[in-house]
Prior knowledge:
The protein is of the alpha+beta class.
Amino acid sequence: MRLTLRTLLAYLDDxxxxxxxxxxxxxxxxxxxxxxxxxxxxxxxRRRRIAAPELSGxxxxxxxxxxxxxxxxxLPADAVAELERxxxxxxxxxxxxxxxxxxxxxxxxxxxxxSSELREHMYSQGAIASPEEPEAGEGQPSxxxxxxxxxxxAAVRRxxxxxxxxxxxxxxxxxxxxxxxxxNTVLALIGAIVLGVWMFSLSEYFQPEQRVVSTQQxxxxxxxxxxxxNSPEEEAxxxxxxxxxxxxxxxxxxxxxxxxxLSQESAEALPPMPAEPEPLPNQDSEPxxxxxxxxxxxxxxxxTEQAPPEESIEIAAVPEVVPDPDAxxxxxxxxxxxxxxxxxxxxQYVSNSGILVRHLVAVDDWDVLPRRSLLFPGEEFACPExxxxxxxxxxxxxxxxxxxxxxxxxxxxxxxxxxxxxFAITQGRLVLSxxxxxxxxxxxxxxxxxRDDEWKxxxxxxxxxVGIEVIPVTPxxxxxxxxxxxxxxxxQLQSGSVRLTSFPDEQTVELRPEQGLLTFSSEPGDSLPEPxxxxxxxxxxxxxxxxxxxxxxxxxxxxxxxxxxxxxxxCIRPVVKDRRPQNSELAAKTLALTGxxxxxxxxxxxxxxxxxxxxxxxxxxxxxxxxxxxxxxxIELQDRFREDDAATINRLLWGYSxxxxxxxxxxxxxxxxxxxxxxxxxxxxxxxxxxxTNRSFGYRAGLNPKDREPNVRRWREHVERTGALxxx
Length: 728
């Protein structure tokens, strides 16, 4: 069974056969998109105050009749694809289709009950024949139509009045009565067919053609005495048998089975039925041809004439089939059984303040997640700065708590063979705390995925608190995608102990208080490094995401910029141009975290230096998330800047390596760009010069040309003196 939106709705409403439901369930588990779509369907149906589809205007498609045909499985295939695409892109349309499918399942799944009041009302709508109707006079034409004899009885029943005491319920026969009539009709029809076949076979027995054995054989001469001994009665009987036709007899038999015709003409047309059946031929009479004896030479001559020697059949030689060893197909190995996965833990967003946004795959945008919402497997979430998001993990009893710090982007992984929840971390920091009070129940296990690496993390003790940090790697040249699978950061233990197991090689290391730091390897696929002692615990792990009073006031002010019913691209993108530098910088970081390229390109040219730097770092992190991001960036820059300026900005955003800092041409080019008329070019050049040399010489891209000139002159003198930005 194919995995479509209709089959998903049927699976959710439990109307599939057990085998089909099992097959669809396995396909949903194997497909992250299908899992996300199932969670989305359940979410939009439960969501309150969701907008209804428009009845007119640009957003009115599809027509309600089209939705009804889709639910009734009568919509053409080309229209089905278009309607499902609209449902995937629009939450109101998806909620409408899913809710209507659920309602129809509930309504049509139970038999319809007709109340007595409704039945009385239905009967009262039709005209009822009067018990006493005046008969047609001699001069008046009769209103009763002439019907065939078979239907006279039914016609009489229809025109005859009902008894006065008949109840209204008796006029509508029950369903069992209709079934009984059909059953009787079918049985009568089967009996007529069986009787007709028997009569037909019986009539064939009397055909004279069956009495002749072969026209090629010589006629057998009967003794003269046998013919002379035949009485006149026997001759008459023989003549009757030879002259009998099968068809009239069969028609007469079938006519006798049918109801008799009441009209005089039909009665005269039927031939009279014989009182007694015709006698069967004498079985003891002499056979027409005697069986030849084994030694009969005359019979042998007859056989020779029937099969002449010149008509002998030649049998063609069949070539020997030699098996081809290359054509042998070995038997297929049976597929291993699919492991039964445990039910995933519930993840619930429980923060009383702050912002957590969720990725909408259908429209490729993000929206604000309401508080107390559940996080479903396959969904992607992000916590913008300066907020934090607290999540509880468990079913009836909480087993762990997860805190997403500002600037963190993760995907919920759901259950696996060895854990009931997990996260795929794109970037940021999160803090895991064990909340299991029962030590005998075993450690709390979760699945951890970063880029192409995957681990199992066990929180071994109930008091375990551990922090995980993932730092993205940025490109160092145009088209450099080598860092797409690389990352920095590590795992640091605050209390308790954890065990980390890598897959598929299953290497294991344990972190304890005396050796509680594990730094991620710079190369993917390397073995797990040995844990080491940490000099101190970072502040973000100690505080667990707690904000200072200044940060709290800033967070409250920035939180007001988020609108529940609007996507991030609409409510946060305009904040980039806010006159308040803090709000503008936070908006740029939010757009960078959620990958909103259009807003980041806007932020490259704003007047706030903090916003421009946040946009530069956000675009550089975004470039390595997908191979298609590079061409997308080039197209966006071409639409927003002049062609030469767009090429310069594109080159700068891809970055430079430490070897480029030792190249005189690259150093001179970067210094010359410090005087460019585009502030985005000046900011990018100053950003890389400071990053490669750790110096600034007091240069600011936002200064006026007169104030920038002394700083640019110092950089020119530095390049002339050293021959590059950094001397070898």
